[in-house]
Specification:
mainly alpha
């Protein structure tokens, strides 16, 4: 045998369950809001750190830019020095070529003269003996 249910009790139990669920959701919302607030605070701290790191990198970039400008100036100076070396090299190449020509011409004249002297000596020796 079953006891009859009171129809009013079921509605009250449903209402109570709903109130408990609503209270749990409110508590959950409060906890989540507090958790998100803490998370936001942490992200703000991280953002501040990243801002400081960005400032440091900006300063480093400025230093590299200044170093690059200095290297460009040094490169320009080396180009000028290289041009001077090229001009001096051309000048001394011409002088060396002229000197080599004169020395070679002198050597040829001396060899010809020596051959003449040798031929004269040979002719004299052949004629005497």
């Amino acid at each position: 045998m079953t006891t009859p249910r009171d129809p009013g009790t079921e509605a009250r139990i449903d209402e109570l369950i709903k109130k408990v669920d609503d209270l749990a959701l409110v508590e959950l919302k409060v906890e989540m809001t507090a958790g998100f607030k803490r998370l936001d605070e942490r992200f703000e701290k991280v953002d501040e750190r990243f801002d400081r790191v960005d400032e440091r990198f900006d300063r480093v970039d400025e230093r590299f830019d200044r170093v690059d400008e200095r290297f460009e100036k040094v490169d320009e100076r080396f180009e000028k020095v290289d041009e001077r070396f090229d001009r001096v090299d051309e000048k001394y190449d011409r002088k060396f070529d002229r000197l080599a020509f004169l020395l070679l011409t002198g050597a040829i004249v001396m060899i010809t003269a020596l051959l003449g002297v040798i031929a004269t000596l040979a002719a004299t020796l052949i004629h005497v003996f």
